[in-house]
Design a protein that fits this description.
Two copies of one chain form a homodimer. Chain A is α/β, with parallel strands linked by helices. The first copy, chain A, is 29% helix and 27% strand.
Chain lengths: 662, 662
């Protein structure tokens, strides 16, 4: 078929695609990210782009007449019919967002990485000692207490050459795979110092990969990028849906996550840091021999190319939970094809390997003290326990804190309001409400991210702008007004913002096309947004309550609360407690563990004890299914207030509110 | 590239090949076999064919002027340059030969085949019992005492579907692979009765495959064919040479043996016998789930695509001897891709899996009695021992008994003289020597096969036509004459034979081509042939002597002598002893085990005890390298007489000779 060249603006990135390819897919191929909340189903209208060239499109009611006149189309419903220039307006661009790659470092007493490199100095064969090459290798390994090793057909085919080229003095890489020793590589003895591994956090939105020196445990470099699966839907359910309903959906989702990871591997192995260490360009990929990945259960399934459809349906059964160790070649990862790939075990369909990794990173199962771990993302997961027992649950908290389902919400990326403070002063004819905010990158704001939303709601609540139920009070202020979707509060005025401000091509009457800067828009929060956020925080809090009650504990019994996930690291803890998102316990009990998924993966990569601990966590963790749990429903309903129906649960908040009212 | 159609006569088989393909390769593709002793190097001249059409050829001195005029070319040195008709004269045709597929049957007390099929009736998942599919399978297997099974990535990908399609009531196939349980298949519970395996004898010349019902142990059908590698050389050394020196030699040899086996599998699964048993056409290949192959060390290497070059060079090191169990997908076998493939272990570079299989088939390591096992082929291998110890050796006996290196020798195929008796009567002016013979197929003879050669030499010796040294005595008889290569004995006169008789196209002077039957030729045996045969028998006998002496035994100590291989089954034992090929012990001590390679493979396929026995044989068998052994040289030299320098070793022969002289 004929190829068409599609150029994306303003990035000026071009890509060759087949005639008839969807613009959304062309963007993925060009490594340009267009928003696609609904997964390319033509339902969300978030992927509007302006085209110059020939496209075949469906007429969508999500486009205004003006947009249609100006050649706007939905990227997901338009096919490339020739060379094309596509302008992605700001609102449709998936912004480069802050990715938390750091996690709490745990000191490993002893490195016992997933692969070991041993020097094998073998006697040269003679007529008296004429056993086969493979028996000779096994004899050498037995002398180092490695018995009955297995070997793949492809590696066996390489043995004779590897032994002779290296004069019987080789480096052997060994891994314990599913309880058996396997020979993973036979190479020169000099290769022993080139011993690399990857820790991978497979997020639904973002993928982070660390290149790690398995001899020293040091992280050489970390890279992250969007999960390319985003074009197939933004959350786990959309992806499952895509896998099930689209022709070739599962293979495509698998291909996209593998491409995402391979792209990051490519970047990591071209990294300056590697050159600095004197590792030859291009040789490194083959020296990557051990991989640990952590992801939620759906991401783990898609990574392994396993059908995720049963995760979505009661009784929510994944294909696999304690995942057998596989090889890079099984998964098309562009590293040494023999590399072992260990996935951190998933407990259930909705408590995945990312949570197991969080627990590893927190170290909570190594301690006597009673701990609670909370991971807030699109889903909220909570885990409680100590070294002897663990209970877990998950709730579909909703993606409010990720900026979805909130009109001017956005991810934590450039231009997002991340901190907010209000002052409210009585004034003639009403109130003077001032809003102070800080944006990521200190540029004009274009929306509000999770930490900003928490600040905003807490400030609105403490200043009496909203009531316990999240209703906006009728204060006299120009910032409080009736919008199209009901009452709203203006956070930033149009002239301050870059929201909707964009260079837009307009067709003049004579047909000439001119670029014009559009106007900014007010950034607001609506009553509906506030209710969404309250539902999310109520779900998280109720999950924790159910865990505690089911084990006959109260929040006071907790010694420690670990907050995992990128979201946690940037929020104002006091304000999160004020809203009733997190329990009202002394702040010193809180501990932020950062990207626990990546951190736990790294620990499992470097320590046999941690891999065993992951399996122990899998085995001892009980899972409470909330979707059919009456207690959860009651707790959730009680938590739909700020901070909670029962203010006794939030004594310091009650005190502060009293003080404010006084 | 353009395709050319090449048609081979007299079979009238056509094949499409690329322009420039060698005729020899085109023949393989057409499933027509042309002799090629040197492996397509243009050295043996055995692949002469007559062409009609455009070829690109090298001028060879192996062709006579007359042959060149009549468009004869060497198939190995001529490339197809357009559509072509190729006539393969009788002498260049690799005849369909008798293949011994039967082997001694050993009664297995209990079937413990390489794969087991179990019914797994699993509870349907619920919210209370919501473990993953794979954990559910593992739990079900643990109830049947199968712990910690491994699974491949591809099978894992199929689990969810297999369980649900079969309503949680499935047939699981399990194999013990390198000491660990592996799940090899998950299928409907009805599939339990369709449980098939293959026993494969990978011979250098011939490949035999049996389709076996693993539930009953019954052989359903057996098929055999030439090893397609023959075009790359007729013996093991020629193949190793080809692998080493030709561009892409090893992949090609591997491809040819895999094609040979896949072709036989195709035939087996289309077999009437399968239809009779009600197994649906086309479903069977996927039901073949366990495979055991036995071959000499080089054949095993080529089957596994392992470089065999170090087998050939001192100190003769194979890549592998105790061969790890692999999967059909690793080897491109067209059966269930998960099928386990076990190769019978090889002891050393020249005592291979075929010999280990012979030992299994003989059962000698299960008995107290002292046994000797002899396998005569291109190589001769001898093994001695009992249930507690084993010694082995091999000698390059030379392929005399396979008809190679003997002017009118041939394989045991249609038209081969297989039995001979002589009468010698004094007559005026000399002797009247009559030759009585029987050919395979009872047609006009075209050569002499191994059993015929043994009969012939024994008869010539007993009648005084040759002396102890193999020299032809100057008896006055038209059958004894001086030939081009020295003295020779006429076995059959030209008018009786079909040797060289062929329909040959001749170009007449006016250019017209006519078919004419050529004349037959005398079938003779030359003094040089006789010396070659004596060298072969001396090597075999000397090997056995060395084994006995090295363990301080004499032939009298032997309780049993097993003769393995197709050759053994057709020979006249008394005559073989008369020549000194086999030791002079009571005939009742001899036992023919037939195709022990196939028989042993079948035993290993059906019995865990036999697989363990194969490993025990590998471990307890000592190997004596004869090529550097002085004792062997002395024994060989002493055995270069009929029956032997030391006639005390052959008392019954001495007695018979005395009687004849008396």
């Amino acid at each position: 078929m004929a190829d068409c060249v599609v150029t994306f603006q303003p990035d000026n990135k071009s890509v060759k695609v087949e005639l008839g390819e969807r613009i959304l897919n062309a963007a993925v191929a060009a490594d340009v990210f267009i928003n696609s909340v609904c997964g390319g189903l033509g339902k969300c209208g978030k992927c509007k782009v302006q085209v110059k060239g020939d496209v075949s499109k469906r007429d969508s009611e999500l486009l205004t007449e003006e947009e249609k006149e100006n050649d706007f189309v939905l990227a997901c419903e338009s096919a490339v019919m020739g060379d094309l220039e596509v302008y992605i307006p700001e609102a449709s661009r998936a912004a480069k967002h802050q990715i938390l790659v750091k996690s709490k470092e745990i000191d490993l007493k002893r490195l016992t990485p997933i692969t070991r490199k041993l020097r094998l100095t073998l006697p040269v064969p003679s007529l008296e000692d004429n056993i086969s090459d493979f028996e000779r290798i096994k004899r050498g390994l037995a002398e180092q207490n490695i018995e009955n090793p297995r070997i793949s057909a492809s590696l066996l085919r390489n043995c004779a050459k590897a032994l002779r080229e290296n004069l019987w003095d080789v480096g052997a890489t060994i891994a314990e795979v599913n309880g058996t020793n396997e020979i993973v590589n036979i190479d020169s003895k000099d290769s022993i110092k080139k011993h690399f591994g990857l820790a991978i956090d497979i997020g639904t939105t973002t993928v982070v990969v660390s290149l790690i020196d398995l001899n020293t445990g040091e992280t050489i470099s970390t890279k992250s990028n969007y999960n390319k699966q985003i074009v197939c839907g933004e959350d786990v359910l959309a992806r499952i849906n895509y896998a099930e309903e689209e022709e070739g959906g599962l293979p495509r989702l698998n291909k996209l996550i593998v491409e995402t990871i391979n792209f990051l591997i490519e970047n990591l192995t071209l990294d300056d840091e590697l050159c600095r260490r004197g590792i030859e360009y291009g040789t490194c990929k083959d020296d990557i021999i051990g991989i640990v990945a952590a992801g939620n259960t759906t991401m783990s399934h898609l990574f392994l190319s396993l059908d995720p459809q049963h995760i979505r349906l009661e009784p929510y059964i994944p294909t696999v939970s304690l995942i057998p160790t596989l090889r890079a070649r099984d998964l098309n990862l562009e590293v040494n094809p023999e590399a072992v790939v260990y996935c951190v075990p998933c407990r259930s369909s909705y408590v995945g390997g990312d949570i197991t990794a969080d627990i590893l990173a927190s170290g909570l199962t190594k301690k006597e003290e009673l701990s609670l771990l909370i991971d807030v993302g699109t889903n909220g997961e909570a885990v409680m326990g100590n070294k002897e027992w663990l209970v877990s649950c998950s709730c579909s908290a909703g993606p409010a804190f990720e900026g979805v389902e909130v009109q001017h919400g956005m991810r934590a990326s450039m231009g997002a309001i991340e901190k907010i403070a209000l002052t409210v002063l009585p004034k003639e004819n009403g109130m003077e409400i001032s809003v102070f905010y800080k944006t990521i990158g200190d540029i004009k704001p274009k929306g509000i991210c999770g930490s900003g939303l928490i600040d905003l709601l807490a400030e609105m609540f403490i200043h009496g702008i909203i009531d316990k139920g999240g209703n906006i009070n009728d204060l006299l202020s120009p910032r409080i007004r009736d919008g199209i979707e009901g009452k709203e509060f203006v956070v930033a005025w149009a002239h301050e913002t870059s929201l909707g401000r964009d260079m837009i091509a307009h067709k003049k009457e004579d047909g000439e096309i001119v670029m014009e800067e559009s106007e900014g828009k007010d950034i607001v929060i609506t009553e509906a947004d506030i209710k969404n956020i309250i539902r999310t925080k109520a779900a998280v809090y109720a999950s924790c309550s159910v865990l505690l009650k089911s084990m006959n504990h109260t929040f006071e019994d907790l010694d420690k609360i670990y907050i995992a996930g990128g979201f946690g690291n940037y929020i104002d803890l006091k304000k999160a407690i004020l809203l009733g998102l997190f329990p009202d316990v002394p702040l010193k009990k809180y501990d932020f563990i950062g990207n626990g998924s990546l951190g736990g993966a790294k620990l499992a990569l470097l320590s046999k004890d941690m891999r065993e601990e992951a399996e122990r966590i899998y085995k001892m963790m009980t899972y409470i299914e909330l979707s059919v749990n009456n207690m959860f429903y009651n707790e959730f309903t009680s938590a739909l207030f700020l901070p909670h129906t029962d203010t006794n649960l939030f004594p310091t908040v009650a005190e502060q509110l009293d003080k404010n009212q006084g």
